[in-house]
Amino acid sequence: SLRKDGLLTSVRGAYGGYMLSRAPDDITVGQVLRALEGEIAPYECVDGTDHNCTRGDDCATKLVLVKIKVSIDQVIDSITLNDMVIDNIEIEE
User: Taking the complete model, does pTM exceed 0.85, yes or no?
Assistant: First the structure.
């Protein structure tokens, strides 16, 4: 799914394997997580797919769950793979 979503490129041959299709600062944690796990949501009623919730728009907690999802998306979409590498290097030093 990482290749299908355009995050990895395969290289054939004796020294082949996989490599990032873009620079690490152009790939976010959110893109990787969504490619591997699908939409990230605290509860399935706010993951963007159609679920058979009996409460629907009358749910007292839906507003809270939507705000949590928006916050999660903002955080994971603001962190790049390059950010993670830099943070790890700083921790090791």
Answer: no
